[in-house]
Write a structure and sequence with these properties.
about 400 residues, alpha+beta, Heat Shock Protein 90, five-stranded mixed beta sheet, 10 helices, about 60% helix, rod-shaped
Length: about 400
Amino acid sequence: MTLPRPHRDDLLIAAGGLATGLLMWGFGLHLQTGRLIDARWVTLIPLCVMAAMETLRRSMPQTALVVGTLALVADQFTPGSLVTALMFTDLVYAAVVYGTPASARRIPYTTGLITIGVTIGFLVWWQNAIALLVGVISGMVSFLPAMTGAVVRNHRQAADAARLRAEQTALLAEMDRTHAVVAERARMARELHDMVANHLSAIAIHSTAALSLDDTATTRQALTVIRENSVEGLAEMRRLIGLLRDSSGDAEPTAAPTLDGLDALVGQARASGEPSGLTFTLGDARSRAGGPLPAPVELAAYRIVQESLTNALKHAAPGEVRVELDRRRDGALTVAVTSALGGQRQSGPRAPGSGAGLVGMEERVALLDGEFEAGPVTADDGRRQWRVRAVLPVGTSDREPQAWFG
């Protein structure tokens, strides 16, 4: 078994103690006379043993204390050295500071009991006040260093616990920051998709029509719609970029869209879908239930209708696209958009889709603890339809703060 390598500071303490003890021995300075062994050189044996134990004060504190205790007892039978006693106090201190938790708790009690026992024993033996002085010296050599070590150890443990809490707090803060960044990027992706996809889909559809149909009036109408959607899409992009850079003070926050703008939204879709044989109608039954809707609910409903109309322009078969809004008895808003579902269009251009729109709608509804479904259904007349339906409760809408861009 190899002994652990002594710490550099422990080697310096041992060397300093040994050098000081030798210097005092050289000048003939001793603690006592008339001991069992009066030879001066014998004093060097406990001194050297104590100095050797100082090298182990940090790596093997319990062993150093036991051997040091034996060396101190042996020193009492010699003329004695003050340095030996001082190095022993350091071993007691180190055993509490660097030892195991059990020994750190046990040593102060043990040294306290030893101090009391020594004091009482000498009082009974000598029956004079000198016994009290011996008890005080015994306490200063053993109990006082042990209590000092206990205080230092407790402070170090408190500092370590505080540092660990600070590291954990910083880790949690970093996790929260990362989560907030991811959530904000997802929100930005939804908003960007919902704002721009509608305009770009209309541009794609009408540009395809302008290229495929050799009719001046149709081409002119398609180019007009393309220009309108290009201008509106560019304005939306500028507002979004301005809001993302609002720290510079160059942009003013813009209001989020509300359900009051559905008429214009459906009218725009009607103009874009006319060449494809699509008709658009809006049924708004919200007046049957009173009370305004929270802003997050209105924004989510508007974006769901906007994305559903965009998908209808891309994929729906010729026929009616119907938007229906209603309020339930509990105040929840229901949004439903249905469109004809069939084979490929016989006429009219189409635009490709990425599938991100359905994901964005579902995320919006999930943030409000609502219900969302999208898929084919069978209408009352037996025709197949594609339906998007969302139920947006108003009681939990404050979970998502109002979007800061529209």
